[in-house]
Amino acid sequence: MNVVTLSQLQFAATCMFHWIFVPLTLGLSIMTAWMETKYVTTGDETWLRMTKFWGKLFLINFALGVVTGITMEFQFGLNWAEYSRYVGDIFGAPLAMEATITFFLESVFIGVWIFGWNKIPKKTHAVSIWLAAIGTNMSALFILLANAWMQHPVGYVIRNGRAEMTDFLAVVTNPYGWIKFSHTLMSGYALAAFVIMGVSAWHLLKANETDFFKRSFKMAAGWAFVASLLVAVTGDFHAVEIAKNQPSKFAAMESIWETKRNAGMCLFLIPDSNNECNAVEKLVIPGMLSFLAFHDTNGEIKGLKDFPKDMRPMVTPTFLSFRLMAGLGTFMIVASFVGVILSRRKTFIDNRLFLYVMVFAIPVPYLAQQFGWVVAELGRQPWIVYGVMKTSDAVSKSVTATQIILSLLGFVVLYGFLGAIDIFLLVKYAKKGPAKDTSSILDMKGRG
User: Fold this and answer.
1) Is 162 helix (H, G, I), strand (E, B) or coil?
2) What pLDDT does residue 393 have?
3) Distance from C-alpha of 144 to C-alpha of 137, rounded to nearest angstrom
4) Residues in Cβ contact with 420 at an 8 Å cutoff, skipping those fewer than 6 apart
5) In percent, how much of the chain has pLDDT > 90?
6) What is the DSSP code (8-state) at residue 428?
7) What's the pLDDT band for 426 if we cut at 50, 70, 90?
8) pLDDT at 227
9) Does the bond joining 382 to the residue before it have cis omega, within 30 degrees of 0?
């Protein structure tokens, strides 16, 4: 493999590993803040125990996410120096804002939240976790705005052989970025809710802390259902943006080869070069693609044959990843809806088959998000900045294939070690369950 392919592989490996931690951090931060708010407003000790238990899992995940995220930014200067030189003034702006504003916000107030138990009023303590959660979610916004500029560049000119920013407001209000942010945020909330449901289901199967985990499951099921529905809604808006701004990606997502109006959607099989689902007509929904792309069944979809061969993304992995993402997302909507219904029944814990399903469903949102990122990044190729800079022109000129291979192996070993630690700690404390006596660890009575 050449330097370009190896650099792509290294960045994909580090990015996908880092993304294991990000969505759970996004979701658990907000949900933990909500639990503590419920405790402060109701005085119910169960909400206090839930805050402590799920908050501990949030902190473990947050710490590993920070460690794995730092290495990614170094790669822009090491493996992708030409990219940084060419677009650094634009791409670096939202990343700088993330580092100097939101990261410090979340870090400071997570510290206040961790060490403030029993030292500050409980209302102030609840505010601290909300500020940390807001910082965490806003951090994702700036990073996704940076990525959105790579997907749909705006507010710039090419001057002196570099891309220079001319409109900062256009960069931070990029519609592509805000839709992507909304989609990512909702998927993070859904993932966190599925983790809570899965852990709660495991404890319910063991008949451990039944009341505690029935309440946790019931709460998370509502979050999961609403968030999963919103993932689908924001995904529809995102598809429209892709069809408008990245027609080659949209064509690859649906394996559309011929430009046509009233384009049908192939559900399972990959269409051939004549845009047919291997002659199995029942697998095609007439007009659906045109409707998804333009909310008009007569909309024209540009086919892959209208793009030069060297400007086409890899069709098969993009097509299959999109369908796997959508299929897993559909499962999440159905499973969470069933969870909402069953968790409100007195006989809920007797539904052991469903509880087992929810335990094994914990990886589902993780897989859905990974497939989503495959579509987003692989579907953009051969561009690193769509329509502006090719990936092959972005790699560092001084880096050799041997150096990348060695560093990639180092990342695999390091990240494998960190991943093992994370799984060990999450499983250990998830299986341990909540503390029995809240007064011994979170004595907040009489404050506020």
Assistant:
1) strand
2) 85
3) 11
4) none
5) 21
6) H
7) confident
8) 94
9) yes
